[in-house]
Design brief:
Number of helices: 14
CATH class of the largest domain: Alpha Beta
Distance between the termini: 63 Å
Number of strands: 32
CATH architecture of the largest domain: 3-Layer(aba) Sandwich
CATH topology of the largest domain: Rossmann fold
Largest sheet: 8 strands, antiparallel
Radius of gyration: 29 Å
Structural class: alpha+beta
Strand order of the largest sheet: 11-10-16-7-8-15-12-13
Amino acid sequence: MALEHIRNFSIIAHIDHGKSTLADRLLQATGTISERDMTAQVLDSMDLEREKGVTIKASAVRMNYTARDGQTYELNLIDTPGHVDFGYEVSRAMYACEGALLVVDAAQGIEAQTLANLYMALEADLEIIPLINKIDLPAARPDEVAEEIRDLLGTPIEEIVRISAKSGSNIQEVLDSIIERVPPPKGVPEAPLRALIFDSHYDAYKGVIAYVRVFEGQIRKTDSLRMMATRKNTTPVEIGIFSPQMRATDQLSTGEVGYIATGLKSVHECRVGDTITLTDCLAETPLPGYRKAKPMVFAGVFPVEGEDYEDLKDALAKLQLNDASLVYEPEISQALNFGFRCGFLGLFHMEIIQERLEREYDLDIIVTAPSVEYEVLLRNGETIRIDSPAELPDEGEIEQVREPWMKIQIFTPTDYYGVVMELVTGRRGIFIDQEYPTPHRVQLNFEIPLSELIVDFFDYLKSGTRGYASLDYQFADYRADDLVKLEILVNQEPLDALAVIVHRDDAYRKGQALVSRLKDLIPRQLFAVPIQASAGGRVISRANIKALRKDVLAKCYGGDVTRKRKLLEKQKKGKKRMKSVGNVDIPQEAFLAVLRLRDD
């Protein structure tokens, strides 16, 4: 199709503002999917996506639409992931477009992630078409939200389209706006091929399937292709378009969106953001913006039953086929035996992987408290990176410990200003500045250590603001601070799975809280069990779990006191011998106690 009749666009929105429902209505309005085949959230193929109301995996679809002028247009919708953890994938999907539909909930208004994705779209120089969704809700306030959008973007109120994606009202107006306002793609069809990979997934029969947008040149099924970042060469098994199922075609031309079944066996060879070119006519430069996905959050994943280790290994390998951002390596824990140290993009990504392991592969697993990657400068001048507290060297060898800091934006009604300030500053956050995009809402900008953000920060933010606040974050830099390893010793044995790296000022409070909680969680043994918290080479808190005792004096009805003492001494010796050889059974709840230190 001619370039001037192609429109490439994405939909950006905060979680649960109706992005997937709007995509469904567009597919119906253009006749891409028949009424018989229609299901809710048709582009969200995973059960988890439907349950959580958030797109986890990007997808694309081609729609043909005949406009008012009688001309048929090719509309390529590139649906982006809907969570901040997948920010890089969102940026690549946006780079593949020329326009974006900005969907704002008529009841909730603009939220932090709406702003974050909007700024990303403006950075990619996209034409923004604002939409107010859910206008049929009883709590809808479309006029106020329209004013918020006007203040933010400068769009005249009469140009903001008001829709109900659920009922399908005004969807035709959305399609007409896309054709009128989104510019057609640019590119030179005769130039050497440059196609952007904005997502990929693994197929057992066709290998890695790359989702691509062609910027210059053409792709034919017989062409020999090269991935410019990984320098991998391949001849496609199949090329085609999404409608929304994959449909094979003979070629993909400049400006078009489609897929390439590469035949490659790993998504590591076909990375998101890479540029595809022809091996016999190489492009001079790749498309800008490519970088390798970098895990930010790390946790140990262990099978509850030791014999499930191989099943867990196979399950992680299969998940990694579709998700190059998941990294893992074998790990041995004194308390939990054999498992894996896994790296995730963020806490939501970790939650998704955990649920998929339990649901899709029917595994019982223990996930340890999440940690971040620290930079440790040793006294000998060497710098090492560690992602597990157990790997932190002795304090005498350490010159400096640096931790990752994040820039965060919290968008909240002004009523909760004090609550948010108290929450962030109580976690070593630094206030930067504030903005008032609308009269009754404030955007607060902070910097905060990632370790303070990953465990329960979002839960406390939501509960403290009654669900009205929203959060977005980006990596800032590594900064040195006075950090120490907080170790837990049970019966004189250190438990590596319960070790955490904390600020020295917080070590005593957290150590005491953890010891108190473990005392309640670990069942009594036949011998006394001491639980200790150690930081900076000294014990800072201790509690004892009393032994289960048999009443050895039950048969003594009077008599000489020495007889009683003899029986008690005999019992004491037996307990002492048992303590030296006995193992303490630690329940799974004990490992989760680290996550709930602030619940008290």
